[in-house]
Structures are given as C-alpha cells and as structure tokens.
Amino acid sequence: MIQLIFIVYQLLELDLSNLFNKKESMQNQEIVKLIENLKGRRNYEEKKATKLGFASLYDYFEDKISKKQKALEDEENELEATKAEKETTKNKKSCSCC
Predict the structure, then answer these.
(1) I need a labelling partner for 2 at 20 to 30 A (CA). Which of 23, 42, 70, 76 fits?
(2) 60 with 48: CB under 8 angstroms?
C-alpha cells in the first residue's frame, strides 16, 4: 500500500521528503530564517558564498552550520579524552609497592 502511494506521488511529482525527514525540514527552516534575517549583510554573504564555490546562499549556510556542529563534537571528544587521561593518571601509583 505504501509503495503504491509512493509511486503515485512520484508520478504527480510531489515532494515526500518532508514526510520522511522531519529533522531535515526543521533544519531547513533554521537556515531559511537565518538567510531572511541577514538584511544588510546578505550581499556580503552572497559574495563570500560564490567566492567559496557554493551554488547558493542556502548551501553556504548549510555547510557553515554543519562545520560548527562538527567542531563542537570534536571539542566534546577532546574533553572526554582529557578527562579519561586525568582519571588514568590519578589511578596510577608512583610506586609499585602500593
């Protein structure tokens, strides 16, 4: 039944991505709002996006947001690694008799 509905939607050329990717559509709305709120900086950001090789301002901001998220994840991983190192050094004793 679902396959039949999907085929009908494809034949009618309707977009089903909103039905299956709710998180993606929410993020898309974030980017759209970000672009709408640029006001005077929009021209600057468009030039920067074309200079960096992005096809649209939307693609540029999508990449920018994904890079920020990746940087935050990397920073969290580094913090976890340093905490683990500190715990292992606390557990190690300076002498072998203890």
Answers:
(1) 23
(2) yes
Closest among 54, 52, 51, 72 to 62, alpha carbons compared:
54
Each residue's pLDDT tens digit, 6-42: 666 666 665 555 555 544 555 688 888 989 999 899 9
What Rg, from alpha-carbon coordinates, does the chain have? Answer: 24
Contact call for residues 58 and 35 (beta carbons, < 8 A):
yes
Task: Determine the average pLDDT of the residues in 53-82.
Answer: 92
Q: Counting Cβ atoms within 10 Å, is residue 10 exposed (0-12), middle (13-18) or buried (19+)?
A: exposed
Q: For residues 90 and 44, give the distance between their C-alpha atoms in angstroms, rounded to a whole number.
A: 51
Name the burial class of residue 43, with classes exposed (0-12), middle (13-18) and buried (19+) by CB atoms within 10 angstroms of its CB: exposed
CA atoms of 59 and 41, how far apart (whole Å): 17
pTM for the whole thing? 0.57
